Amino acid sequence: MGLRLKFNLVLLIVFLVGLGVSGYVSYGLLVRNARDEVTRNAGLMMETALAIRGYTVSQVRPHLEMQLMRVFLPQSVPAFAATETLNELRKKHSEYFYKEATLNPTNPRNRATDWEADLVNQFRGQPTLKEMIGERDTPTGRALYIARPIQIGNPACLTCHSTPDAAPATMIKLYGSANGFGWKVNEIVGAQVVSVPMSLPLRNAQNAFYTFMASLVAIFVVVFVALNVMLSWMIVRPIARMSHAADQVSTGHFEIAELPEAGRDEIALLGRAFNRMRRSLQKAMQMIEGP
Questions:
Q1: Full-prediction pTM beyond 0.85?
Q2: Which whole-number Å values give the CA distances from 176 to 83, 158, 160, 169, in the listed order?
Q3: Distance (Å, rounded) from C-alpha 56 to C-alpha 59?
Q4: Nearest 5 degrees, angle CA 117-CA 118-CA 123?
Q5: Which partner for 79 in 11, 100, 104, 274 could form a disulfide, CB atoms 3.0-4.6 Å apart?
Q6: Which is the CATH superfamily of the domain at 3-13+206-289?
Q7: Distance, CA of 154 to CA of 186 (rounded, Å)
């Protein structure tokens, strides 16, 4: 096995190990960053819904108090306002999802599906739990969700949700008297659920990973070629000349030219040492052979 082959094998092994380690670390980092980005987007969407709810309570509802005494306006309900606003967002970004999933809702569109009901029941079973983050498969791909409990903390909410007799007649006319009643103070009746797609950030992370790995391979190829040229020019060729010269001298052919001695590196030092040895050996042979 030649020197060049040994050098290239070691270089290739080192590269493959480095490529594997770099790939493992970089892929995990990119996927983690993509998931963090999705989590931030979901959190921002949740905070947007909470801001809309707060705005409805503090800025909209007070101006409708006189009208609300005569007729029920669903637009004055914080949950309705948040859902309607974010549904406008979904017209352009249908993969984003927001719902105030309720086990026994007044508005039928808020009724919890099976997986949403599981979230609500987890909150009901663990009253101290304030948030859940998880992943689920959707028709548009993998999605990350954030869920927070909906708890009846304001007794004023029971005006519309205690019994049908206590609720506004116009609300009963709009939604009926079969659902949305029997709620109690401090009861967890549902969950705010935000769902954000993971497919695009993960695809971007994978594309970044492939680009990074391709760049590493390209850099290795350039370095590999450059090192082989340097190895051939600075080491292999001088050593091959020394080997040929040593072979000639060993058979008594002293007429070959001396090796180049220019330079201060190890190859030049070896060349000077070889030339001294050649001259000494030539003189010794002359002395043995006599005049």
A1: no
A2: 20, 16, 12, 9
A3: 6
A4: 95
A5: 100
A6: HAMP domain in histidine kinase (1.10.8.500)
A7: 8
d(CA 120, CA 193): 10
DSSP 8-state secondary structure symbol assigned to residue 262: -
Q: How far is CA 273 from CA 240, 256, 259, in A?
A: 16, 16, 10
Q: What amino acid occupies position 50?
A: L
Domain layout of the chain by residue ranges = 3-13+206-289, 39-198
Task: For residue 154, name the pLDDT band (cuts at 50, 70, 90).
Answer: confident
| C-alpha Rg value of the chain to the nearest Å | 40
- Identify the CA nearest to 198 among candidates 95, 118, 268, 111: 95
Task: Give the per-residue pLDDT at 251.
Answer: 66
Taking the domain 39-198, which CATH number applies? Answer: 3.30.450
Q: Is 158 helix (H, G, I), strand (E, B) or coil?
A: helix
Q: Tens of pLDDT along 278-291?
A: 777 777 777 776 55
According to the model, what pLDDT value does residue 199 have? 84
pLDDT of residue 70: 76
pLDDT in tens, 76-119: 888 889 999 998 988 888 888 899 999 999 888 899 999 999 99
